[in-house]
Amino acid sequence: MSFQQGISGLAATSKQLDVIGNNIANAGTVGAKASRIEFFDMYSSALGGGGGKSSGVGVAVAAVAQSFSQGSVTSTSNPLDVAISGNGFFQVKTSDDSVHYTRNGQFKLDNQGDIVNNSGDRLMGYAADAAGTVQSGQAQPLQLLTSAIQPKATSAVTISANLDSRGGVTLPNAAAANYPIDFADATTYNNATSVNAVDANGKDVVVTSYYQKTAADTWDVYVTANGAPVGGATPTPVTTITFDPTGAKPLSVLGAVLPDPVAGTLGTPFAVDIPAGKVTNGVGTLPISGLKVDLSSFTEFAAPFGVTKLAQDGYAAGALSGVSVETSGVIVANYSNGRTKAIGQIELATFNNMNGLQPLGGNEWAKTINAGEPVLGVPGSGNLGTLQTSALEESNVDLTGELVNMMIAQRSYQANAQTIKTQDQVLQTLVNLR
Fold first, then answer.
1. Please, are residues 314 and 197 in contact by the beta-carbon 8 Å criterion?
2. Directed axis angle between helix 399-431 and helix 4-25, to 10°?
3. pTM for this one?
4. Phi–psi pair at 172, nearest 5 degrees
5. What is the residue-wise DSSP string for 209-272?
6. Residue 260's beta-bridge partner residues?
């Protein structure tokens, strides 16, 4: 009598129940992948024995394979939660400098500014330089510097507006013949607009431009900085704009003939020097030398004065206020001054044989010879998937299917136990023969 078949069946089915139980336990684990057990039958035969007479000696476990199919993606409120939609694994570096692979995108910042998972392993990718340009090459742990972004002094101002051609010529006050404009008297100019420039220290400098019509299709432009005239104590025009009769474009700015706008851009912006501002309570503004002012998009139509564009390229200092991840894997830092800057880009990895990866726990895998070398790239390249920010990939465990499999395994276990019981009864019958 042989009990081997039944015993092997009990052992294999017990292992199957272990796998099913593990799947059910991880049905709510982010990035977890379901496993399935694979069996093979066992036969033994004597040397030279003929085929067709072996009844088999039971079953054994061939492998426990994982399914790397896509899990459902759900939204979250954490901007550092990232889900992979498609193929690929995040790469994380452990404390012993080993590289592990994971589909769990629950990341956060530690006290050093590193982007880490719940195990403290650091997310890997390409770093960006000081200007925010991603430097492709060898992946390294990504770090978000929490220091403030330095201010940048304004170097260029662009203003687009319409000057009303129906406006009358504005003449200086006869009582102040040598004083062509009074910034406090709106009757000495036609229109004005302001833009907040920034000095090298990050302080605001209110740059106001005044437009005074001196003849048909001709306008003088004056500029003040924090209320003080630019160009000297006596107000002096910084430029003069003349228009063609249609008013569709300036003919000249400061005497420089501008090319046809259809053929290209309208000339080179003129430059003004902004003086240092007055000191108030010990605080003043720094000078801005060579500030480029572009008025090439001005028009002179019979319509009310209106500004359509007002822009400058400077900004004050800013503190880190948040972070976001783009679908391409670029991690962007957001600052309180409205600026953004890329700090790096996530690198993904995939394998020719994902089932060759070694499960390590903690939703991480390690590469093996069976898995092959990782194929690396940025999200969306090759056969790598894209990223979804503020989202997580759920487990791909089918809970309904696992419960059905558990019932089938239970029946199989009971049936194998019954074969052992039957073998025992037959053996008992033989022993009791007289």
1. yes
2. 160
3. 0.74
4. -65, 155
5. EEEEEEETTEEEEEEEETTEETTSSS---SEEEEE-TT-SSEEEETTEEPPPTTTS-----EEE
6. none
- 66-80 per-position pLDDT tens digit: 999 999 999 999 999
CA angle 87, 93, 94 (to 5 degrees): 125
Tell me whether strands 288-294 and 156-162 are parallel, antiparallel or unpaired: parallel
Please name every residue paired with 223 in a beta bridge, in sequence order, or none if there are none.
209
Mean pLDDT to the nearest integer, 302-317: 92
Cα–Cα dist 263/208, whole Å = 31
The pLDDT of 299-303, averaged and rounded, is 93
Identify the structural domains of the chain with CATH numbers, from first to last. 4-69+396-431 (no CATH), 74-149+320-393 (no CATH), 156-312 (2.60.98.20)
C-beta of residue 156 within 8 angstroms of C-beta of residue 291: yes
> 247 — alpha (psi -120 to 50), left (phi > 0) or beta?
left
Q: How many other CB atoms sit within 10 Å of the CB of residue 227?
A: 11
Quick check: 181 and 230 in contact, CB under 8 A? no
Per-residue pLDDT averaged across 342-357, rounded? 93
Question: Quick one: which of 52, 101, 72, 80 has its CA closest to 371?
Answer: 101
User: How far apart are the C-alpha atoms of 254 and 231, rounded to whole Å?
Assistant: 15
Nearest-Å Rg of the Cα atoms of the chain is 38
- Label residue 175 by pLDDT band (50, 70, 90): low
Q: What is the dihedral of CA 349, 353, 356, 360, to 10 degrees?
A: 30
CB 325 within 8 A of CB 387: yes
Backbone CA torsion sign across 32, 33, 34, 35 = negative
In one-letter notation, the amino acid at residue 182 is: D
